[in-house]
Amino acid sequence: MSNDNGTIRLVIITPYKKFFEGDVRSVVVNTVDGQIGFMAGHPPVMVALSPGVSHFIAGEESRYFALSEGYCEVTESVIKIVCNSAEFPEELSPRKTCISYTNAMADLEIARKVEDRSAREVLIKEHEQSIARARARRHLLENYGSDHQKERIAVLVKEYGWKDII
What we know:
The chain is of the alpha+beta class. The chain has three helices and ten strands, in the order E-E-E-E-E-E-E-E-E-E-H-H-H. The chain is flat, with a radius of gyration of 17 Å. The N and C termini lie far apart (about 40 Å).
């Protein structure tokens, strides 16, 4: 059951920590079918998450964060997100974001040359997910990071030759 004040409990859990727990007015997540938002009173549903920038509104504050693959379950009383990683912009390093993208792109090229078809498909999917996570982190830093993070990511994207546009 949602709260009388139009909020619902949001719990975001990763394998490493409880990322967030609190009452929110709404949450928007990226799914395999596109973005979807949930509020108190939403019918129960479960959706598969894809990497991207998500946000919630708690009180008058909007908080943006990067989510990786996982799932989101909405019940009468809680929105539960279980994912591999969740990060607020202040937790991210622009350099590590660029390095992870560069490494994932290089690994993807190697994976494409694997002879065994089923192994190749698994490796390609794994590295495409790594690239999607790096893109989500870049987008989060460029749009919701501190001024310093925005400046650093702009410089590093050029330094690392990150060509694709988000």
